[in-house]
Amino acid sequence: MTSIKLTIGISTRALFDLDYENEIFVNEGADSYVRYMVEHEHEPLKKGPAFGLIQAFLALNDLYDEPVVEVIVMSQNSADSSLRIFNSISSYELDISRAALTTGASIVPYLSAYNIDLYLSANEEDVARATMGGIAAATVLASPESAKDGISQIRIAFDGDCVLFNNESELIFRREGLEAFGEHELSHALVPLKRGPFANLLSVISELQGQFDDVAQSPIRTAIVTARCAPAHERVIRTFRDWGVRIDEAHFLGGMDKTAVLKAFGAHIFFDDSDDNIKAASTVVLAAKVPNFLKVI
Prior knowledge:
Elements: E1 6-10, H1 12-15, E2 16-17, H2 19-28, H3 30-39, E3 46-47, H4 51-59, E4 69-75, H5 83-91, E5 98-101, H6 108-113, E6 118-121, H7 124-132, E7 136-141, E8 154-158, H8 168-176, H9 178-187, H10 199-209, E9 220-226, H11 233-243, E10 249-252, H12 259-265, E11 269-272, H13 275-281, E12 286-289
Parallel strand pairs: 1-4, 1-6, 4-5, 6-7, 8-9, 8-11, 9-10, 11-12
Antiparallel strand pairs: 2-3, 7-12
């Protein structure tokens, strides 16, 4: 098996439930927050929205000849307040050994330094800055399924435009309407779509999947769940061929609500740039909001 590495940066509030502690920080200040964390550093934190997914990603290392996933905690906590976080990692037996602790400063400058392929956070501002810096980043929303353990096959669903693909076609839709969008995509069916913020992540995942000859045995399954429909579907399929990536399922919904399809697919995380789609999806899946810098002039 070839050497492939997927590096995930995870914020402490995405990995663990720190809602109560964050209220202390907001209402009483940093000193009170640090004091509370130190006083309770031997009490494991509850699982956060992305805990189950991160646990499943780390478990992939048992299936390959060498480690293929590394998870790095990226936190604005101070070193002094972080012992509770590391103790919680140890308590749950998560194989995480690296961390970036910035004591209130933005972690964004360190994402490239740590070679992060995917950054998951509860902080929208950090996610927006990370995206502008070329990192695949998303804000995670808790859902009833978020902290579920025992994921045997990781199922990842992506939106298309503004997520896997750039926003060029979406701009045409916003400016000129559905008919113009359909005509444009049909006339450009043989022209690959340009890569969006999550295209590189899909490529890495596709390489990991390619290590298994039997598709059914792959520990990761992917799907694109998009509002596109015929005739705009052909360009998507040809784009994946051009990129040389694998997508296991494609759902062209033509504006239909995505929630039922995501539930049927059994998605463990869904990346989308639409607030409405994310809000609806968060009832059945760990929904991850990708920043959308689309400007319609």
